[in-house]
Design a protein that fits this description.
The protein is elongated and about 115 Å long. By secondary structure, it is α+β, with helices and mostly antiparallel strands. About 50% of the residues lie in helices and about 25% in strands. The protein starts with 5 loop residues before the first helix and ends with a helix.
Length: about 450
């Protein structure tokens, strides 16, 4: 047989090695491509038919499946008023503790308060108290009235702006936490301007329940019942200083009206708030088969609650939520362990929503709905149908044109185009992204461009 010289043999060997390497690379590439395509198809199966594989389908946006669109306004002025009220209550308590005589604290326009000091000696003590405990307060005016002096106090403008900004920020986070626990898929919650919040909730059908959960302030307070004064006298207009009248009532689910209203005369001073809550859960009373909400406090809250109940045995302690009395039981003994319960005429849904609101925390200020739009599911289905029809017609025309004009190369491009659409849909399902009407338009544009 003819012999090959060394250079020819070397060329043959090199070509064989390159061919083997190409085959090896081709096999790896083929396996990777096949694996990606199979994975995309598996993720896409629940969207085509949920019975084939119980995974999550592609999330649809508000414009495709319907839902709620809300624009909320945080009443930031109320946050400033609440801050001023807390400061005035602290000052009233310290004036009493330091034995500084005064002729009363009075609210001024909700954002300021005045203190009337009867004489120069007590005025000196009062100024010392201001320097020691209330350095952040601003003296707006000081008006002599004979021997007495009326001092109007408030907070600086920069501090008020900070409180308003923080109220909006905290409101945004609180609403986001509530909606996350409510179970809405892919909500859109963002800040608009200084004190507005945009909320979009795709797929929400019970709009009234969602609005109630979002708008609930959920300010939980524990206050003692004022048993030393007559509630009937207070109802006639003579409310004792340091007390207030609040009501316990039920809400008729059909008419949404308050029923079975019972007045309570309560001490204004809040002994404990929901700020120290760690958990709130719904339980079922085994005796009456009614739901109630259990509250768990952190270590500090548990100590305060034990102290409150220990010092007020045989007195009534009211549990107040958003100025509504839920219950006012008599304290039988000191309660340790940091646990309490809220009882009332709850439905299971009401109890669950209350627990969600308490776990997420109280809104720092009330919110009101400025704009509300509801996108019906039928409109969403119509958008999906028209979008899919346009995608199918556009895709069919592109595929037909490619086959006629480019023949074999066009068939290869069409095959790649189909794989491209499968990968896009599989990616949407796998990463739980949200498909909207503009998203469908983007896929249609991709059909037109991807053949390049």
């Amino acid at each position: 047989p003819p012999r090959l010289d060394s250079s020819a043999a070397s060329d043959v060997y090199k070509r064989q090695v390159e061919r083997d390497r190409s085959l090896k690379n081709f096999s790896w590439k083929s396996l990777i491509v096949a694996g990606v395509i199979i994975t995309a198809i598996i993720y896409l199966l629940p969207t085509i038919n949920p019975e084939w594989w119980p995974y999550k389908k592609i999330n649809l946006g508000l414009d495709l499946q319907g839902g709620m669109h809300l624009v909320l306004e945080v009443e930031t002025e109320k946050a400033v008023e609440n801050n001023i009220e807390r400061i005035s209550l602290d000052m009233r308590s310290l004036l009493k503790k330091e034995r500084i005589r005064n002729m009363g604290l009075t609210s001024v326009d909700g954002t300021k308060f005045s203190v009337k000091i009867p004489d120069a000696q007590n005025l000196e003590k009062f100024n010392a108290l201001l320097d020691k405990e209330f350095k952040g307060l601003k003296i707006i005016s000081s008006t002599p009235e004979g021997d007495a002096t009326t001092i109007v106090l408030g907070i600086p403008d920069a501090e008020a702006d900070h409180i308003k900004d923080m109220a909006t920020r905290q409101g945004l986070e609180t609403i986001r936490n509530r909606i996350d626990q409510f179970g809405v898929s892919e909500p859109d919650i963002r800040r608009q301007g200084d004190n507005r919040i945009l909320v979009q909730l795709p797929g929400v059908k019970d709009t009234q329940r969602a609005k109630g959960l979002i708008g609930k302030t959920a300010l939980l307070e524990f206050k003692l019942v004022d048993e030393g004064n007559d509630v009937n006298a207070a109802l006639k207009g003579t409310v004792p200083l340091g007390s207030e009248v609040l009501y316990q009532y039920d809400i008729d689910p059909v008419t949404n009206r308050k029923t079975n209203q019972a007045p309570f005369l309560l001490k204004k001073r809040t002994l404990l708030t929901g700020a120290n809550l760690t958990d709130a859960r719904v339980q079922i009373d085994s005796q009456y088969n009614e739901p109630y909400v259990t509250l768990d406090f952190d270590r500090k809250g548990g100590r305060v609650f034990a102290k409150i109940t220990g010092e007020n045995v045989k007195k009534r302690l009211a549990i107040v939520l958003d100025d509504r009395v839920y219950s006012a039981p008599v304290i039988q003994e000191k309660i340790s362990g940091g646990r309490a319960r809220i009882t009332g005429s709850f439905s299971t849904e009401e109890a669950n929503d209350l627990a969600i609101a308490l776990r997420a925390g109280a809104l720092p200020a009330p919110v009101k709905i400025l704009e509300e739009r509801t996108v019906g599911p039928s409109l969403g289905h119509d958008s999906i149908r028209k979008g899919l029809i346009s995608m199918c017609i556009g895709g069919a025309l592109v595929i037909l044109f490619m086959i006629i004009y480019y023949k074999g190369s066009g068939i290869i491009a069409d095959f790649a185009l189909v794989l491209n659409i499968i990968l896009i849909a599989g990616g949407l399902a796998g990463f739980q992204a949200t498909l909207t009407l503009p998203g469908i338009a983007g896929i249609i544009l991709t059909i037109g461009m991807a053949v390049d």
